Amino acid sequence: MSDERPTAEELRQGMTVEIVQDDADPQSEDTEPIIGEVGTIYGDEPEGPHVKLKSGVVGHVQSVVPDE
Q: Which of 13, 29, 36, 50 is the most exposed place for a label (fewest CB within 10 A)?
């Protein structure tokens, strides 16, 4: 996987990703990305793949968190 945003096809349930929550203001410098495990993958959108984390948070994937 590259450093660019992944596609929905590249994601799998249980992967750890960094997302921007749907109701967050993308222009705000205070917007903190959320890290969690993918629960549901809805599909690709211009802002990045749309997913629901296992924690229930919904947003767009910015990157996949590498396994440590």
A: 29
